Amino acid sequence: FLDQVYQIADRITVIRHGEVVGTREPSKTDEDDLAALMVGREVQLAVDRGVSHPGEPVLSVESLTVRSDRGGQESVRNVSFNVRAGEILGIAGVAGNGQDELVEAITGLRRSNGGTITLAGQNIGNWDVRERREHGLGYVPGDRQKYGLVLGFPLTDNLVLTQYYHRPFARGVQREDAAIEKWAQEKIKEFDVRTPSSTVAGGTLSGGNQHKVIIAREFSRDLKFLVLDQPTRGLDVGSIEFIHKQAIQKRNAGTGILLVSAELDEILELSDRIAVMYRGEIVALVEGRPTANKEEIGLLMATGGRAPAKAPSNGSSGQTV
After folding, report:
1. How far is CA 67 from CA 59, 61, 70, 94, 97, in A?
2. Residue 59 phi/psi, 5° resolution?
3. What pTM does this model have?
């Protein structure tokens, strides 16, 4: 949250790897300079999305209704949208407006109460999580420790959680440890997971490196559709830059991506189209940058497009206009 630092700080000191690497005055620095100090190299804060070339819809949601755990209330109400192959659709909305329940319904973690979910031409509404994954669905969860990792398992196991029963990681019921170890070493290096070894438990890593393990596992699969739920929450700017680039590469390879993020700037940076969610409904669907307007989307997130009530003027009867 570099913007918040600028708002309140008289001086800014950057610590990297336990050492002070620089001190700046806000008036004499910028976000690029601070990001470079934090990471130790130049960081590209703006995402180079390039031009997307979307194909046919890979995920279609029609009239979806999902109840929450809070008294059976409908958290998702009659929602319809599609995600095309080779595009990123961002879901913008204030937290608690049905995004969690929508993601859980799509990934199979929660049963829907009406409507249909179609993945690559097949209705998956009654499929379990493994069936959906076998059909090409990937998932980077917002809660990395609850849904993303088995914290007591070593990284070798966590990196094959979704495909440990496939070759080359298994031969029938026989586990192939050498193949799993080789895969883990390759992914740790490719995705820059900071760990002393591949055999340490997932729960011993920092939150950012736990997230990299999940990213490595999901992005390394051959996917038709990928759900990114809060993909950069709690990460440093270098990790954010890396994950954003990986998401664009996955999109360019033809994967349809649903991005859910509480950070409107992240939605604007990555999304080819943006769906605004308010009180369980999709209230607007707009094109991404350069045509997207941050203020208009922010207003839709806050009001759902409804005009805010005006305060009574002096001398009025006190009724809201």
Report:
1. 21, 16, 8, 18, 12
2. -130, 130
3. 0.84
